[in-house]
Task: structure prediction
Amino acid sequence: MGLDVIEEKNLNDAIVYALDYPKVVLAESNGFAAEVTTLGDYAFGLYIGYISGVFFDGFLARNKRYLDSEELSDFHVILVKRSPEIRLKIKVHLHLK
Result:
């Protein structure tokens, strides 16, 4: 069945919020990135984790269940489609090339 229009909008809203308020997601990124990987990759992982957490928590609260396999697949398709936008916003905010 996949994500319905409302849940797809909720996911996109979570992505937009994270992109509009990067300090919410990236506040601690500078301190830990050097120990792990590049700052851009670390920040991207933080964004994906933040967006996933916000969306999954909201989905569970609204629907009283976890995503099924088709909904999870739709979730991943949307994230993959929006990942260039997410990476670009991270680079702009962190002043990376």
Q: What stands out?
A: The helical segments are 5-20, 22-26, 29-36, 39-63, 69-94. Residues 5-94 form one domain. The chain has a mean pLDDT of 87. The radius of gyration is 14 Å.
